[in-house]
Amino acid sequence: MALEEIKAAIDLLMAEIVERPEDRHVLQEQLREKIAELRALGLPVPADLKQFEEDLSDDDSDDVFDNMPV
What we know:
- The protein is mainly alpha-helical and about 70 residues long.
- The chain has a domain at about 1-40.
- About 75% of the residues lie in helices and about 0% in strands.
- It contains 3 helices and no strands.
- It has helices spanning about 5-20, 25-40, 45-65.
- The longest helix is centred in the first third of the chain and has 17 residues, at about 5-20.
- It is globular and about 45 Å long.
- The chain starts with a helix and ends in a 7-residue tail after the last helix.
- The mean pLDDT is about 80.
């Protein structure tokens, strides 16, 4: 996939995450895959995407015990 296609897919995924928060986890995984494609091609990952990816990881760790009985 060409760089511009990957960037367009990333932009679309980020917009969908905002519009469809109920599907956030699925969309986040797709976003991580697109970022991995950039890395696999040896292309730099923009700083804002790196930060967004880190923020997603932080959000995921908060949800780990949400359904645990007390």
